[in-house]
Amino acid sequence: VNQVANPTLVSSACDMVSTAYASTKESHPYIRSVCDAAEKGVKSVTEATASCVQPVLTTLEPHVTAASEYASKGIDKLGEKLPLLQKPVEQIIADTKELVSSRVADAKDAVSS
């Protein structure tokens, strides 16, 4: 899970969502009360599930470790093949805007000539 969240694109997107969530909670008292209740519910379910699942995880630990190592190698290869994952969301948006602007300018030049 940590390795999936590690690429710059993913971590910057998570940061953006987290910031928007916190800002929304801060700005809207009614939404804050709903979010607080939802967070408490998720926390309770997580704690209850963790205690029930722990014995199963202990039994499956060697298999989970092997799957984790395999997934880790796959994520490393994905990062190599998709350098976009190493860029923050803001940079991708800026690059996309620049590319679109360039293409629109080229199209305008072609039409006007």
From TrEMBL:
Signal peptide: none annotated. The keyword ATP-binding does not apply. GO terms for cellular component: cytosol; lipid droplet. Its main location: other. Keywords: Lipid droplet. InterPro entries: Perilipin (IPR004279). It holds the Pfam family Perilipin. It is found in: Lipid droplet. GO terms for biological process: lipid storage; positive regulation of triglyceride storage. Belongs to the perilipin family. This is PLIN3 protein. It comes from Centropus unirufus.
